[in-house]
Design brief:
Distance between the termini: 56 Å
Largest sheet: 7 strands, mixed
Shape: globular
Strand order of the largest sheet: 2-8-7-6-5-3-4
CATH superfamily of the largest domain: Type I PLP-dependent aspartate aminotransferase-like (Major domain)
Strand content: 5-15%
CATH architecture of the largest domain: 3-Layer(aba) Sandwich
């Protein structure tokens, strides 16, 4: 009897493409292969010592072991508001415009669950971080997509983006209620200018839709690029929220700390649904996260510089291997177009071949959406020596295939 029960929401989710690479990676390791894993966006560095010490200090206090506050303790919400004030000159009310979450992924998924009615439609650019689209599917909504267009420097074609959003609004029924933006983008590393946010906020007010912005990689920017925030736009809080996480900036991925800020109606919906679904993070984690946000930010700069060094090593080493890759201005990834000779394989099969023949794991672009199938995402989560070794392995594999890839062939 129970075998016949259908779980419709789960059936609507596609098979998780990355699971196939993960299974093959484990098979290779069990067979004794030294796999260089550049597939996951999982920071490899330790959390800064002063944050760990605050966690230990707080955990020793006898009164911190009960249930916490689902929307986050006040001091953490205040720290998030102060972070926005320092970085972007934006005032946020910690009581009504900030909710702490168990990482930005959980906060985003819970927010979508709270605000999506059956059949609601969201515009999600393609490719995207999978939860950005699948959260709406799980909540009973629909998703419409259009390909992200960017230049060789991974700067967004902002004019085309705005026109594509307008087209989605005109051509879809029911009319989309939400637009998802994620810049710097995962997986494409695409960046935007402050003017971009002014344009989409104005459009949202004119066409009456909400904007959900994700700036998880705001601090990981290179070559002088500074990540803008939609919250800096006058009137943005009327139509937008924004999510941020401590996972990357402070090497705190496993701690699961983030926050969502902005529009009081949307933030209030998230606070309400969280009051039903969870009791919040362990209080000492929230206390330590408060110290991270309020304390000396030298550690953030050191982490940023580390990724910038790895980026430079990766671009140079892979070029020497015959794989020309454009250099990103932000995130902990590179978005690499598959060499022309392998492009017919598609990104999943190419990723499998790299894993089997070069012992290098990357993420297939198709896992982020159909527009990503000529690309793979390479995470800068190994040290410089391991990155150079990965390039040597790939160079050997290319030579065995009798392939030397030129820069012109990568255009």
């Amino acid at each position: 009897m129970f075998d016949e029960i259908e779980f419709d929401k789960i059936k609507r989710l596609p098979k998780y493409v990355f699971a196939a690479v993960g299974e093959l990676k484990m098979q290779q390791r069990h067979a004794g292969a030294d796999v260089i894993d550049l597939s996951m966006g999982n920071p490899d560095g330790p959390t800064p010592p002063h944050i760990i010490e605050k966690l230990i200090e707080s955990a020793r206090k006898p009164k911190v072991y009960g249930y916490s506050v689902s929307r986050g303790i006040f001091k953490l919400r205040l720290a998030a508001a102060d972070w926005y004030q320092r970085k972007y000159g934006v005032y946020l009310d910690p009581e009504t415009e900030v909710v702490a979450s168990m990482g930005s992924k959980e906060g985003y998924a819970h927010l979508v669950q709270a605000i999506t009615n059956l059949g609601d439609t969201a515009i999600v650019p393609d490719p995207c971080y999978p939860i950005h689209s699948q959260a709406f599917i799980l909540a009973g909504g629909n998703v419409v997509k259009f390909p992200i267009k960017f230049g060789s420097d991974f700067a967004l074609d902002e004019d085309t983006f705005v026109e594509d959003v307008k087209k989605c609004l005109r051509e879809n029924s029911p009319r989309p209620k939400y637009l998802i933006v994620n810049f710097p983008n995962n997986p494409t590393t695409t960046t935007v200018t402050p003017e971009f946010y002014k344009r989409i906020v104005a459009l949202a007010k004119e066409e009456r839709f909400y904007i959900l912005s994700d700036i998880a990689y705001a601090e990981l920017s290179f070559d002088g690029y500074k990540t803008p925030s939609i919250m800096s736009v006058e009137g943005a809080k009327d139509v937008a929220i924004e999510s941020y996480t401590l996972s990357k900036s402070y090497n705190m991925a496993g701690w699961r700390v983030g926050f969502i800020v902005g529009n009081q109606k949307l933030v209030g919906a998230l606070a309400k649904i969280k009051s039903w679904l969870d009791y919040g993070m362990f209080t000492p984690i929230q206390v330590a996260a408060t110290v991270a946000l309020n304390g000396d930010q030298k550690c953030v700069e050191e982490i940023r510089q580390n990724y910038e060094r790895r980026r430079d090593v990766l671009i140079k080493a892979f070029a020497n291997a015959g794989w020309q890759i454009d250099s990103p201005k932000a995130t902990m990834f590179v978005w690499a177009r598959i060499p022309e000779q392998f492009r017919h394989l598609g990104s999943l099969e190419f990723a499998k071949q790299l894993l089997i023949n070069a012992q290098v794991a990357v993420s297939p672009g198709v896992g982020f959406g159909p527009a990503g199938d000529e690309w793979v995402r390479i995470a800068m989560i190994e040290n410089e020596n391991r990155i150079r070794q990965a390039a040597k392995n790939i160079k050997k594999y290319f030579r065995e295939k009798g392939i030397a890839v030129s820069a012109d062939e990568m255009k």
